[in-house]
């Protein structure tokens, strides 16, 4: 599967069916999937809390050194994570990750678990 060109954790196929950001019309984060707190942990992991109260850890170490994530190799850079006003996480240099993809990664859920209407759409892809 190809990665979304803007938010590297979501697949292009997910973006086409509205699971991630709809790049043509603006922000789309389903209710409960906005990040309210983020804390950098050792080993390029994030401790996240979402606005629905769920929290957990996401390991992002596989992205270090790849593309825009090469910036994280600089000491202290990964630790500069912040939560944006619209519930995403970002780092200096315009590196950001969409919260719904992080939520799916944290919980182990699939897009169709959260969006039942996708079951039919993906089966016809």
- In helices, the fraction of residues equals 10-25%
Structural class: alpha+beta
Distance between the termini: 12 Å
State the fourth-level CATH superfamily.
NE0471-like N-terminal domain
Determine and state the CATH class.
Answer: Alpha Beta
According to DSSP, the number of beta strands is 6
Q: Which sheet architecture does the biggest sheet show? A: 3 strands, antiparallel
Named at the architecture level, the CATH assignment is 2-Layer Sandwich
Care to describe what's here?
This protein has a single domain (12-109), classed as NE0471 N-terminal domain-like, CATH 3.30.2020. 19% of the residues lie in helices and 21% in strands. It contains 4 helices and 6 strands; from the N terminus they run H-E-E-E-E-E-E-H-H-H. Strand 1 (35-41) and strand 2 form a beta hairpin.
Describe, in short, the structure shown.
By secondary structure, this protein is of the alpha+beta class. The chain is 19% helix and 21% strand.
Name its key features:
alpha+beta; 125 residues; 6 strands; NE0471 N-terminal domain-like; 3-stranded antiparallel β-sheet; 4 helices; disordered N terminus
List the helices and strands and how they pair.
Blueprint: H1 12-16, E1 35-41, E2 45-50, E3 55-59, E4 82-83, E5 89-91, E6 95-97, H2 99-107, H3 111-114, H4 118-123
Antiparallel strand pairs: 1-2, 2-3, 4-5, 5-6
């Amino acid at each position: 599967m190809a990665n979304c060109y803007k938010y590297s954790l979501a697949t292009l196929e997910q973006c086409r069916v509205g699971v991630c950001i709809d790049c043509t019309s603006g922000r789309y984060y389903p209710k409960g999937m906005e990040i309210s707190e983020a804390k950098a942990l050792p080993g390029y992991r994030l401790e996240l809390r979402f606005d629905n109260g769920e929290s957990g850890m996401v390991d992002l170490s596989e992205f270090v050194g790849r593309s825009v994530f090469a910036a994280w190799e600089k000491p202290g850079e990964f630790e500069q994570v912040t939560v944006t006003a619209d519930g995403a996480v970002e780092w200096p240099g315009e590196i950001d990750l969409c919260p719904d993809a992080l939520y799916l990664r944290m919980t182990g859920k699939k897009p169709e678990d959260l969006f039942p209407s996708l079951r039919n759409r993906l089966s016809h892809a």
